[in-house]
Amino acid sequence: xxxxxxxxxxxxxxxxxxxxxxxxxxxxxxxxxxxxxxxxxxxxxxxxxxxxxxxxxxxxxxxxxxxxxxxxxxxxxxxxxxxxxxxxxxxxxxxxxxxxxxxxxxxxxxxxxxxxxxxxxxxxxxxxxxxxxxxxxxxxxxxxxxxxxxxxxxxxxxxxxxxxxxxxxxxxxxxxxxxxxxxxxxxxxxxxxxxxxxxxxxxxxxxxx
Length: 209
Hints:
This protein has one domain. Helix content is 94%, strand content 0%. It has 4 helices and no strands. The radius of gyration is 24 Å and the shape is elongated. Residues 26-76, 90-113, 178-209 are annotated as: Disordered. It comes from Streptomyces parvus. This is M protein.
């Protein structure tokens, strides 16, 4: 029936948005963990320095690890929030359709318009959460790079410089992954918005008949 087809379309759009959000958040989390690993390598490479330099480096590394831990926490919270938003939208759409199926044709058309609205809201929410995840990773990467630069300047050892170079390479890799994930997110969000708009137009056209 038209109601079942509309429900299937809404579920497909929500599923694509959720998978895209999970992929982006997963990539961000992996890069944050890699940055933490390089920070650990930097700390272990400065054991031959003076006590003062070691203390300064340890403090910088603790700060870097704290910033990265905070970023990972925000990423986890964003993932949970994305899943919650999508689940609520799907549940609301299903309830609306169930109620409409027991009513007349006009109620069904109204339900389809409501589905389009819910899908649009879910898409916007997922897009916002993706942007928050991107910003969280960018902040963590920038903070790690700054702290490593400070540690390298204070320590002045070849080992620290090598660790800094490795972290810079990891940051570039993270940026490439994030750029690709962002492009995928924009593509999926655009497709979801277009699909929601198509459903809305169909519902309006049927209502005018």
